[in-house]
Design goal:
Rossmann fold; 9-stranded mixed sheet; alpha/beta; about 30% helix; about 325 residues; single chain
Length: about 325
């Protein structure tokens, strides 16, 4: 369990802002990191809101952030084998009334990896430390912020909420619940495959683990998923399956929303939802019909409405 202790990292070296066109190029990563990572695909479901990119250096490692919209701060954390585009279909709706901040977590997407071994036992604590430092640098003028996390990012958000001034918290398909999972189709190793065989393996994995509706397993989702997997260096699976969410939630006092897709294979929502939320006045749980694990992509309109209702309660109006 991560305790609410001061971050064990060196001070901020610098923050840079990069207003850029929507070309998908990973310019916010360090030159060292960008040189060895495949580029994110361009032109894939880009938000219509203007994008501002920020680079934050923590302990010599660069973390990439993106900001959309204006208003109260809302931070969105992606899941394992992901990047900021786990929220690609939600940004425009949420950015109409919020400053939406999306990092690539350390070891994901455009961000540098953490120092040390990929399976270091303290890697989760150091990841949260880096997030705390980045938020202090980027969003410090805000008195409070709202926070949402998906999958592994949901577990990260639960840890983070004990360290920064979060007003309201939303967790979608959060990892770390410690309960049973419903995955029945094993994932295919696609890395050695090429061409149509590689694409078919990726789409099989999307259908087995991420998306329930087969019509969502299309070229767009596959392109996002492939580049996310290729660019992942942080090993989150063991952390996600080890539990730890419940004690994190027990340390929090702000309102917490937990939501799952009806067919999420990473959990049994009808069991774990009541276990985590029932009897706690500050917690609620919801089930999104006809959706799998990547619920905010597959049923983005329903999730947009749910999150807007949740975060608009008591929020200051956008300027």
């Amino acid at each position: 369990m991560i305790l609410s202790t001061p971050a064990r990292i060196s001070p901020m070296n610098h923050t840079q802002q990069h207003p850029e066109p929507h070309d998908g190029s990973p310019k916010s990563a360090s030159a060292r990191n960008a040189a060895r990572l495949p580029a994110a695909p361009s032109g894939v479901d880009r938000p219509t809101h203007a994008e501002t990119r920020h680079s934050v250096t923590v302990g010599g490692r660069t973390m990439a952030w993106r900001r959309f919209g204006a208003g109260p701060a809302l931070v969105l954390l992606h899941g394992g084998h992901g990047d900021w585009r786990h929220w690609i279909r939600n940004i425009d709706a949420l950015a109409r009334g919020h400053s939406v901040w999306l990092p690539d977590l350390p070891g994901f997407g455009d961000s540098d990896a953490l120092d040390g071994h990929a399976h270091a036992p303290d890697r989760m604590e150091r990841l949260v430390d880096a997030l705390v430092a980045a938020i202090d640098d980027l969003i410090a003028p805000e008195a409070t912020l709202d926070l949402a996390g998906f999958s592994f990012g949901g577990l990260v958000a639960a840890h983070l909420a004990a360290r920064v001034p979060v007003r309201r918290l939303a967790l979608l398909g959060p990892a770390g619940h410690g309960g049973a999972r419903r995955q029945t189709v094993p994932l295919t190793d696609w890395r050695a495959l090429r061409g149509d065989r590689r694409k078919a393996a990726l789409q099989q994995n999307l259908a087995a683990f991420m998306l329930h509706d087969g019509t969502c397993v299309d070229d767009r989702a596959t392109a996002i998923y492939e580049s996310q997997c290729e660019r992942t260096r942080f090993r989150s699976k063991a952390i996600s399956q080890a539990g730890g969410l419940a004690p994190c939630l027990d340390r929090l006092t702000m309102p917490v929303l937990l939501a799952w897709g009806e067919h999420d294979v990473t959990a049994q929502p009808q069991i774990i939802g009541p276990q985590l939320a029932d009897g706690v006045a500050t917690r609620q749980w919801r089930l999104i019909r006809d959706a799998g694990h990547w619920v905010q992509y597959e049923r983005h309109h329903a999730v947009d409405a749910l999150l807007l209702d949740w975060f608009d309660v008591g929020a200051a109006p956008a300027p």
